[in-house]
Amino acid sequence: MARRRKTSPGPYLIDLELLRDCAPDVSRFPYSLPAFRKLSRLAFHPKVTFLVGENGSGKSTLLEAVAVGCGLNPEGGSRNFNFATRASHSALHESMRLARTAAAPADSYFLRAESFYNVATEIERLDREPGAGPALIGAYGGTSLHEQSHGESFFALFKNRFGAHGLYLMDEPEAALSPSRQLQFLALLHEYLALGGQFVIATHSPIILAYPDATIYQLDADGIREVAYTSTEHYLVTRAFLNNPQLALRTLLQSDEGAT
Q1: d(C-alpha 214, C-alpha 113), whole Å
Q2: Closest among 228, 251, 215, 195 to 3, alpha carbons compared
Q3: Strands 166-171 and 198-202, how do they pair?
Q4: Per-residue pLDDT tens for 204-214?
Q5: Which architecture characterizes domain 13-227 according to CATH?
Q6: Strands 96-100, 107-112: parallel, antiparallel or unpaired by DSSP?
Q7: Is the distance from CB of 205 to CB of 182 less than 8 angstroms?
């Protein structure tokens, strides 16, 4: 897939500031999460910012707030998507200030793995409306996202919908991708960055996290801090397992048997 290289006008996001005085109740979710209790300012890498952490640590909540702050639908999609299946997003964006550069992205998109089905359904609904103009699905490769596997539809989005000078927020893009597809995702990511893109990605994938020109933020009981790739639990656990899967399984399963 050949793309013409252009000089990057980005980055687009500089940092975020949590305005604690504007929070409705800091004792309640999401402000009560350890990751947000001490958060004041978080700088974005000019190319890729990774958010990592255990389930429930707040990384998806933080990414969602950034997406809403950028004018994107909390369920996913571009600025032109305004559907709502269920209003479940937090109010974190209301007490968050995003610092941006003078450069405006040519495109913005929020991928949320858990609600991508809703985005695909909305695309089909909009394309059925009379006089709606060119079919939206054309920007996704031309084939209904519901008529592809979950992984194929994700990759159709990455490959066809994204473009030059874009700001892309992605929540667990690896959710439907095989390891080989995750490697292909890295190649596409590198292409889009060369075209002036900026990404903020919440992920559990040690493959995707390996992208070198990035900042990794760990969200845990101690708050939010920058970590090296080889210090992430994702890298350490995966490496330990692959180095000796028999030992890892024996230890794990024996532990489970003792618990029963």
Answers
A1: 21
A2: 195
A3: parallel
A4: 999 999 999 99
A5: 3-Layer(aba) Sandwich (3.40)
A6: unpaired
A7: yes
Cα(218)–Cα(227) distance, integer angstroms: 6
Nearest to 81 by CA among 130, 131, 116: 116
* Amino acid residing at 114: E
- Tens of pLDDT, residue by residue over 19-67, are 887 777 777 888 889 988 888 899 999 999 999 999 989 999 999 999 9
Place of tokens 């640590």: 57
DSSP code string of the chain: ------------EEEEEE-GGG-S-TTSTTTTSHHHHS--EEEPPSSEEEEEESTTSSHHHHHHHHHHHTT--TTSB-TT----S-----SGGGGEEEEE-S---SEEEEEEGGGHHHHHHHHHHHHHSTT--S-GGGGGTSS-GGGS-HHHHHHHIIIII--TTEEEEEE-GGGG--HHHHHHHHHHHHHHHHTT-EEEEE---TTGGG-SSEEEEEEETTEEEEE-GGGSHHHHHHHHHHH-HHHHHHHHHHHHHHH-
Give the pLDDT of residue 86: 54
Tokens of 20: 């604690």
List the chain domain ranges: 13-227
pLDDT band at 140 (very low <50, low <70, confident <90, very high): confident
